[in-house]
Design brief:
The protein has twelve helices and nine strands. By secondary structure, it is α/β, with parallel strands linked by helices. Bound molecules: S-adenosylmethionine.
Amino acid sequence: MKIPQPIPYQGSKRALASLILKYFPVKIDRLIEPFAGSAAITVATAIRSRASSYWINDLNQPLINLLEKIVKNPETIALEYEEIWQKQLGNEREYYKEIRHRFNINKKPKDFLYVLARCVKGAVRYNSLGEFNQSPDNRRKGKLPKTMRKEILQISNLLKGKTKFTALDYAKIFEEATENDLIYMDPPYQGTSNKKDSRYLAGLNLEEFISNLELLNHKNVSYLISFDGKLGSKSYGRDLPKKLELQKIMIEVGRSTTSTLLGQTDITYESLYLSKALTEKLSIELPKEVALKPKQLQLL
Ligand SMILES: C[S@@+](CC[C@H](N)C(=O)[O-])C[C@H]1O[C@@H](n2cnc3c(N)ncnc32)[C@H](O)[C@@H]1O
């Protein structure tokens, strides 16, 4: 089954899910995503029936409300989307602005779903007042209601009755995590996220993040972190410190189009860090810090 994605979300891990899941234990009691975004990894895990329950968390409350509604009231949100989508026809530009304005006042899931479906690259952007200010992609009308409905129902079938939703700071989730959980983390992009980042409602303090990871190590919790981006020889983020005893795996994810235009072949990498508690559980041979192409990874 292709991973359904009713919420287009820039930075979604949908395309990398099968590579990341290779490093999950075969059976998981509870999978926690503290920085869930569109929860692509949770959905990919549920498709493979790998976990008994799920905990989806993101600091972005309207996003969590939307995901929760998709899972718990799929028919209602699908109908609401269709109604909004139909009303835009013939007046798409102005209508988008109207719904975006309404969303910034009422924060309703149906309005958020529509603006996410129509905004440029599915990329959330906020101004300094915390208002959603991304422009519409005027070449597109947003996912067809029929397709949206199908994907919403698929997500609901996969997660209904076994998923908890919260909009807390990740540190609160760490406090509750136990040895029986698996945590997958995709924190805000490290290169820019120490400062206020217009892509998210909040940034991430790296030093605090590292000391919170030490707490997880202390509790022997299994976790994985997708972290920095690396383009060619240029790295966009610091390595996580040795004291955390993590296993780092580099995944080659593609080539940069800009540098291809310049005749260069810069390659983009993603790192995936595995906690010690996790590597001790896995029965596969783990590569040292090496670059693996998706194809080579499949062989593991
Ligand atoms: C890179 S995105 C995750 C994308 C996700 N992996 C996906 O597949 O869609 C990072 C997410 O972390 C959330 N976030 C930022 N700071 C946070 C915090 N302190 N606690 C919890 N979530 C946070 C953002 O709202 C954003 O949705």
